[in-house]
Design a protein that fits this description.
about 210 residues, 8 helices, mainly alpha
Length: about 210
């Protein structure tokens, strides 16, 4: 074996070891988060909507964990986060994911233009407000508002930045907005969601 071959072999082994270690770390992070979420689900099982909020935290945290470890771009992080929301809302409502994907695709056509994003949201809300006897429309309108807010938060807060610290700030703002939605009609009280989120952060990130 030549010196060059020996170097290449060591380099390949080093990369394999690094990859295995990185994958092991990611798996550990996800397992830890799942344990935390399961504990929170048990602790707050008597409150309305807490399960949905905890599952939302699990979902969005999973996306951002993968984004940080995988060095995702802002655009990919944004896309995966909205797709995670599509999965969640479809699971909660029983509405086919295709319905929400069609809405998301309408937003994608304007390519994160702030003004056009707002215009598309208004048009879609009006469209779903004018459909008679539509069982799905209320959930669709909630999703439209969520996507609009998510896209605006991303575009206004990080405007082309690739800094992950700034993406974390976006995550925080999105979660705060979601808490307001879950706490509508005080079910559950916002204070309970604040407690859940505080415990979640302490357990997952400390």
């Amino acid at each position: 074996m030549t010196q060059k071959d020996n170097y290449n072999e060591k380099k390949e082994k080093s990369f394999d070891e690094y990859y295995k270690k990185a994958m092991h770390t990611i798996e550990d992070e996800h397992k830890r988060m799942d344990i935390v979420c399961d504990k929170l689900l048990q602790k707050y099982e008597n409150y309305d909507q807490t399960r949905a909020f905890i599952e939302y935290l699990r979902s969005i945290e999973s996306v951002f964990m993968n984004a940080e470890n995988g060095k995702w771009s802002v655009e990919k992080t944004q896309d995966e986060m909205i797709k995670a929301e599509i999965y969640l809302i479809s699971h909660e409502t029983g509405i086919d994911e295709k319905v929400f994907m069609e809405i998301y695709e309408e937003f994608q056509k304007v390519n994160n233009d702030v003004k056009k994003t707002q215009e598309i949201a208004e048009q879609l809300i009006e469209r779903y407000s004018n459909i008679k006897d539509c069982i799905e429309c209320d959930d669709c309108k909630k999703f439209i508002v969520y996507v609009r807010d998510a896209l605006l938060v991303f575009s206004q807060s990080i405007a082309g930045s690739e800094q992950f610290d700034e993406i974390k700030e976006v995550r925080e703002e999105l979660i705060r907005k979601r808490m307001q939605i879950f706490a509508q009609d005080n079910r559950p009280p916002l204070e309970i969601l604040e407690d859940i989120y505080k415990e979640f952060l302490q357990e997952v990130h400390n």
